[in-house]
Design goal:
The protein is built from 8 helices and 11 strands. By secondary structure, it is α/β, with parallel strands linked by helices. The strands form 3 sheets. Strands 5-4-1-6-10-7-11 form a 7-stranded mixed β-sheet, with helices on both faces. A two-stranded antiparallel sheet has the order 2-3. The two termini are 24 Å apart.
């Protein structure tokens, strides 16, 4: 890789209410390590230069002393507090970048199966396009429903994707998009617009297309107890993860 500086923002501020646990999902143990460990390990071992961890309120010390320092994640340059919504947490991470940086990776800390190969593939693409979002074509037929849960339309399955992270952008581009979002958030709320990922911010506020690249069907987000069981199966089978 060239001297271009890259930063990964790892989001670990979610409460994980659907997990039905008093422990936040990113801190639950997967095998014998916190879920968050696996994402951090992938970025620590990758081409990325610096890492920012965005954690929950008053969790900065816990995250630093219990995860970052014990496992030697020395690429972590800042641990900052998240916000009310996901997009607030991303914005806090973006504004914490105080060094030269051209490209920003944004990744869910509850996605433990990101790989160094996936990160490198995303980097190679974002250098060409300024936007890059990891995902996979859907396997099932998708229906668009109305508010009463009646089918409105059926999009072509060949054109539908399930979106994952990392999502990678030129730093100036994504920072500008988030500044516009924060300025317009009250208006969007009144309109019922819900921002669910970073690509949507770029789609909504910037006039450039977002490039999709294939990640992996195993790049799941740990959201429910069932997801944790599936992740255990992946770890058991995959010697690359089980040996970490």
């Amino acid at each position: 890789m060239s001297a271009t500086r890259t930063t990964a923002i790892i989001l670990a501020a979610g409460q994980g209410k659907r997990m039905q646990s008093t422990v936040h999902k990113q801190y639950l143990l997967l095998r014998d390590k916190p879920v968050l460990y696996y994402a951090l390990k992938a970025f620590q071992d990758s081409i990325v230069d610096n890492i920012i961890v965005v954690c929950g309120k008053n969790e900065e010390t816990f995250c630093t002393r219990q995860i970052i320092e014990p496992y030697g994640f020395n690429k972590v340059k800042a641990v900052v507090e998240g916000g009310i919504e996901r997009y607030h947490s991303v914005a806090n991470g973006l504004f914490a970048i105080q060094w030269d940086c051209e490209y920003v990776f944004i990744h869910d800390g509850a996605r433990p199966f990101v790989t160094t190969e996936m990160i490198k593939k995303a980097y190679d693409e974002v250098v060409q396009t300024n936007t890059c979002v990891v995902g996979m074509p859907v396997k099932d037929t998708i229906k668009i429903a109305d508010a009463d849960e009646y089918v409105v339309s059926t999009p072509a399955r060949s054109l539908t994707w399930q979106i994952q992270t990392p999502q990678v952008f030129n730093k100036s581009l994504i920072t500008t998009a988030y500044q516009k979002l924060l300025s317009a958030q009250d208006q969007l709320s009144k309109q019922g617009v819900v921002i669910t990922d970073d690509a949507m911010v770029v789609e909504y506020f910037m006039e450039i297309p977002v490039k999709l690249i294939r990640g992996s069907y195993e790049n799941i987000k740990i959201t429910t107890p069932e997801d944790l069981k599936i992740a255990e199966i992946f770890l058991e089978r995959d010697s690359n993860f089980s040996s970490n």
